[in-house]
Amino acid sequence: MDAAFKPDTGQGGWGAVIRNAEGVVVRAGAGNLNRVMDAFHAEMMAAREGVRLAAEAGMGRVILETDAMLVKFALQNDSFRLSTLGGIIWDIKTLAASSFSSVSVIHCYHSCNRVAHELAALGCNSHAGTSLYWDSVPPEVVELVASDLAGPMV
Questions:
Q1: Whole-angstrom distance, CA of residue 60 vs CA of residue 101
Q2: What is the helix, strand, coil percentage profile of the chain, to 5?
Q3: What confidence tens digit (pLDDT) does each residue in 91-148 have?
Q4: C-alpha distance across the termini of the chain, in Å
Q5: What is the mean pLDDT of the chain?
Q6: Whole-angstrom distance, CA of residue 9 vs CA of residue 85
Q7: pLDDT for the residue 35
Q8: What are the E-state strand segments in the chain?
Q9: Neighbouring C-beta atoms of residue 131, cutoff 10 Å
Q10: CB 44 within 8 A of CB 69
Q11: Is the separation of the CB atoms in 122 and 140 below 8 Å?
């Protein structure tokens, strides 16, 4: 999952890619966010959408990947419970606990999160209130998904 944020307008976008154990995309989504306070707010909204998509896809064991270290910290401990985003963070944790048999959160480098990043940019540049969903590889990111699945060259 990833987010995009335009500080001058308070507009943002979210992107999420749900992959199976083999790395094949089984669900993806992107959407526009209005009245976003900051980049962390956008990232937490993207996390909530990613968790929701994984739950709807019927995933049991889930690894949430984010390139935002604060998102990882917020979802792994209670240090953000009194923050302005405490309610959203609580929603994410509650949904994850009730939907998955196992969930872990890992930090990945931005270069490993290109598919979700491009979907977040698509959502950010969409009309207000837009949400887009795909049950396979979205046409906008076919090449990025293919390069991810190809693996490193030796």
A1: 5
A2: 45, 25, 30
A3: 999 999 999 999 999 998 777 778 888 899 999 999 888 899 998 877 778 777 777 6
A4: 28
A5: 89
A6: 20
A7: 92
A8: 2-6, 11-19, 25-33, 61-66, 102-107, 131-134
A9: 12
A10: no
A11: yes
Query: Is the pLDDT at 150 greater than 80, yes or no?
Result: no
Which pair of structure tokens corresponds to residue 86? 């405490």
Q: Give CATH for domain 2-150.
A: 3.30.420.10
Structure tokens at 68: 């935002």
Angle between helices 39-56 and 114-124 (to 10 degrees): 110
CA–CA–CA angle 75, 67, 84 (5° rounding): 45
Paired residues of 103 in beta bridges? 62
Please tell me the pTM assigned to this model. 0.88
Which amino acid does the sequence have at 100?
F
Each residue's pLDDT tens digit, 28-78: 999 999 999 999 999 999 999 999 999 999 999 999 999 999 999 999 999
